[in-house]
Write a structure and sequence with these properties.
CATH class of the largest domain in chain B: Mainly Alpha
Helix content of chain A: 25-40%
Strand order of the largest sheet of chain A: 1-5-2
Helix content of chain B: 55-70%
Number of helices of chain A: 3
Number of strands of chain A: 5
Radius of gyration of chain A: 17 Å
Structural class of chain A: alpha+beta
Number of strands of chain B: 0
Structural class of chain B: mainly alpha
Largest sheet of chain A: 3 strands, antiparallel
Number of helices of chain B: 16
Distance between the termini of chain A: 15 Å
Order of helices and strands of chain A: EEEEHEHH
Shape of chain B: globular
Strand content of chain B: under 5%
Oligomer: heterodimer
Largest interface: A-B, 43 and 43 residues
Shape of chain A: globular
Radius of gyration of chain B: 19 Å
CATH superfamily of the largest domain in chain B: Hypothetical protein af1432
Number of domains of chain A: 2
Distance between the termini of chain B: 34 Å
């Protein structure tokens, strides 16, 4: 099944959600909690993350969209980006890099 | 006809705003004080009942994962559970949220400030810079606009209308046409009058500059605003990316060709979390 990644606030996390990326919490440079990608969250996990001051998680959600719907969603995101970047010269390296990076993020 | 505002008038009119929370300066001073302890932070927090209540509430929620309510009544225990850095973040965000609420700041304005504050924190982590300074710089970067809206609402509205009518207009030029100055200058005057640290004053003053001075907080605030707008975090129709300094990006060691999905996702999720947690109104 096709999935897509979503980054959500911890307050939005629920048990049975599947981690889309490894979760690592470090304090003073020392990892004190970690879960692998693909791990199914439990109530206890969510409490453990909160106890260690985690604020967000990356989850994998089922992507039921067709290819055409994905392409349409990306086109809409790009159109909005074009408006947001309408005041600047997109040939400048930093601007071009930011635009490309945000578009890549919208594609996931 | 444009106003011609002197620094003295900007400071005098700032009396229309609520008193700037002294705890912000106090917290920033503790960062540079090697002798600052949990006790120091406790005494700062406990001076303000609103902040005390919010810290306890958030500490309870954090400690119990928001699932099992439990009453924490001892501030030292709360700080030990939540951690010094997190409590500092809570105090800074709550006090500035209260200031914004009392200033009748619009939701959009507050959400944009939080978005820039969170993006600045994440950039500061990459650049090995203080996340507390980054949060304050981000939350206060547009403080000059708040002054404009509160002290000269008619002129402020005219700026907004001009920006909506001319899609290519520069916000600073438009403000100068109506105010004789811009929000970066007003913000610098206010931040100086409030005795904020020099780097915070510089961040407020130079956050729109294409060639900002070489200072990590200036660079962090400048790039954070570009990212917050690019990610459309406050979902405002007028959101636009302005200048983006190559030098500022280099100073933060930002590589736009790297995979930034995790960074952007973290900024987006944390902004939503902090907007929920520290709602200004």
């Amino acid at each position: 099944m096709k999935t897509r990644l979503r980054y959500i606030a911890l307050s939005e996390a629920e048990e049975e959600m599947v981690l889309g990326a490894p979760l690592t919490i470090a304090e003073h440079g020392v990892t004190n909690f970690s879960l692998p990608a693909g791990h199914v969250l439990t109530e206890q996990n969510i409490r453990q993350i909160a106890l260690r001051h985690g604020e967000f998680v990356c989850i994998a959600v089922a992507d039921t969209r067709s290819d055409a719907e994905c392409a349409e969603a990306l086109a809409q995101a790009q159109a909005r980006l074009d408006v947001i970047f309408s005041l600047v010269d997109r040939h400048r390296p930093a601007i071009a890099g930011l635009y490309k990076a945000v578009l890549a993020y919208r594609s996931i | 006809m444009a106003l011609h505002l002197s620094e003295a008038e900007i400071i005098e009119r700032a009396a229309l705003l609520p008193a700037f929370p002294a705890v912000v300066n106090d917290i920033l001073q503790t960062l540079d004080d090697d002798n600052a302890t949990i006790g120091t932070l406790c005494s700062l927090v406990e001076r303000d009942p609103v902040i005390t209540g919010r810290v306890f509430s958030l500490a309870n929620s954090a400690a119990m994962g928001g699932r099992t309510p439990r009453e924490l009544r001892d501030m030292q225990v709360a700080i030990s559970l939540v951690g010094l850095s997190r409590v500092r973040e809570i105090v800074l965000a709550v006090s500035l949220a209260e200031f914004s609420r009392e200033s009748r700041m619009s939701n959009y304005f507050w959400e944009h400030s939080v978005a820039v504050g969170v993006a600045a924190q994440e950039l500061a982590r990459i650049a090995h810079y203080s996340v507390d300074y980054a949060l304050v710089g981000g939350l206060l970067h547009d403080i000059g606009q708040l002054w404009m809206a509160r002290c000269y609402p008619l002129e402020f509205q005219m700026v907004r209308m001009a920006m909506q009518a001319q899609t290519k207009a520069c916000i600073l030029d438009t403000e100068r046409q109506h105010f004789g100055t811009d929000h970066c200058v007003v913000g610098r005057v206010l931040a100086t009058a409030w005795h904020l640290p020099a780097s915070v004053v510089a961040a407020i003053s130079h956050h729109h500059d294409l060639y900002p001075p070489a200072d990590k907080l200036v660079a962090t605030t400048h790039v954070a605003e570009a990212i917050a707008n690019a990610l459309d975090l406050s979902r405002h129709e007028e959101a636009r990316v302005g200048q983006l300094s190559e030098a500022a990006c280099q100073q933060l060691s930002l590589d736009w060709h790297a995979d930034l999905n995790f960074l952007f996702g973290k900024i987006e999720a944390r902004t939503r979390y902090l907007c929920q947690t520290f709602a200004a109104s």
